[in-house]
């Protein structure tokens, strides 16, 4: 509301900065360049609803999970799709390079996937009627519904439970250990649950390492 970035990831970044005793500089990224910014030293760590995959783990190191996150396909109520098979032939927008992009490719190869460079474009394609459905995190969909209460939209198929992790360049073992300690303490003292309750409407619960 005051043009200052807010959210779960922002709160997590500020907590880590405070615990490390450093000033936080927020660097906006998109799904395709989140890893590249680490590799080219444009950012020291990435806190951007990033899921952990074997492919990504080859080039970056991951912290403990700091947030819950479910990937799903959403669409209008008139479109029938309650299984991966029923996604065949249907148009779905997704953000290029995201976890949802990879999951759709694996789980719904028969879907007609339209890829966009950022979340706003992915959502706009659905809102404009260019696609029947869109794939994103449930938190993003919840925010969209909150901003558009009359929007005809419902969850169709859950793609995955994909918690969020902090990523950093390979070899930063000291930094990784410090961030893991901060996350572990934030889990234990209720800070993580507080962030989750504020931004997702429910406690984070048991998060994987």
Task: Return the average pLDDT rounded to an integer.
Answer: 93
Main beta-sheet strand count, sense and barrel state: 5 strands, mixed
The separation of the N and C termini measures: 34 Å
- The CATH C-level name of the largest domain is Alpha Beta
Please mark out the parts with pLDDT under 50 across 5 or more consecutive residues, or reply none: none
CATH superfamily of the largest domain: Periplasmic binding protein-like II
User: How many E strands?
Assistant: 7
Structural domain tally? 2
Integer-rounded radius of gyration: 17 Å
The percent of residues in helical segments reads 25-40%
Helix and strand content put the structural class at alpha/beta
* Strands ordered across the widest β-sheet: 4-3-5-2-6
What string, H for helix and E for strand, traces the elements in order?
HHHEEEHEHEHEEHH
Q: What is the count of helical runs?
A: 8
Per the principal axes of the C-alpha atoms, what is the gross shape? globular
Going by CATH, the architecture of the largest domain would be: 3-Layer(aba) Sandwich
CATH third-tier fold name of the largest domain:
D-Maltodextrin-Binding Protein, domain 2
**Share of β-strand residues:** 15-25%
Describe this structure as you would to a colleague:
Helix content is 37%, strand content 21%. The model has no long low-confidence stretch (mean pLDDT 93). The chain has helices at residues 8-20, 34-39, 54-57, 99-107, 119-127, 138-147, 173-188, 191-200; strands at residues 60-67, 70-75, 91-95, 112-116, 133-137, 154-161, 164-169. Helix 1 (8-20) crosses helix 7. The chain is globular.
